[in-house]
Amino acid sequence: MIEIAGTQYALNDPVILITGGVVALILLLLFLSLRASQRSARMAEPLARQMAHLGQHVQQLGQGQEQLRGGLQHVSDTQANAQVQVIQTVESRLSSVQQQMNDRLADNAMKSARALAEMQERMKESLHGSSKQTATSLTQLQERLAAIDKAQDNITKLSGDVLSLQDILSNKQTRGAFGEIQLNDIVSKALPSDSFQLQATLSNGRRADCLINLPNPPGPIVIDSKFPLEAYEALIGSTNDMELKAAVQMFRSTVRKHINDIAEKYILDGETADGALMFLPSEAVYAELHAKFPEIVQESFSKRVWIVSPTTCMATLNTMRAILKDARMREQAGAIRKELGMLHKDVDRLGERVSNLDRHFGQAAKDISEIKISAEKAGRRAQRLDNFDFEELAPDDHTNVVPLGKTES
What we know:
two-stranded antiparallel ribbon; 7 strands; 5-stranded mixed β-sheet; single chain; disordered C terminus; alpha/beta; 8% strand
């Protein structure tokens, strides 16, 4: 029996057996741990030796680190010197580029100014020439219109003149010359001098008293002066029926002969108009003919011979003058249209040149703007180069440095 804490237990009691087993186990473990500690002490001796060896290696690494620090200092000094050289080189090149750019900008500005001045000078010369030519054409046109108006005033003054037979001479040749002179006076006062010809010779050899150069149609028309004074005097001087009958027959035959002569001599196909004028220098003869001999007048119409007196000749010539004026106005209108066409072409050419000039100005402005942009970019790049931190390049420059604890392969 065993007593524990006042309690008695038998030796074969399970509690005693378990407790004894635990105590034995603890003792066994203590014995084993003691042996293990002895074994660990024996094993710690090589570890201590390894630790001492490792301390030596750490000391060697410290020495290598000092050497590396010296090498890095050398590399840093070399880097600083190289950086200074790079900065000096960049500044030198930047100054050169800026100088070249300034020179080019100044040269381009001078060229643009010269080109602009030349273009402005050419444009002024072209405008001055065109305006001068237009002013000259308008001045000539005004002068011609003034001359036409003056001639029209003269015709208006002459239209009221009435000629009589008071100063007619009895001599036939003198009478014919008088008729021609009167016709010449009327025509020269009614028409421009270059629109008629006196004593014009036709292709058949006949000479007309006056040839009016009318435009086609009707074409040139002949005026021939006839003065049947003897037949008219016999007609108005007859005292009986026999003398009256004879005078009427003589007057009719004389006028008919004049009409036939004019129709045969002065109406030529392809050369003159299809009619001619017979000028009677007496209003009385003209009135007597139309009053008492209408068949003769109708016969003259059929032969395309138009009988006129000084008054009706003036009216007829005034009509011809209107035709000539219209023709010349058409000619002048053609010239004016031609001048206007040339002026229109000059204006179009001027507009095209102004457009080209505007395009050149736009291109020059665009080039200057692009040059300014390039200069600004170059300035910004130069500023960035000037402010650049070269320390950022250190990792790239030291890519070949061997990390600590590793050997170079």
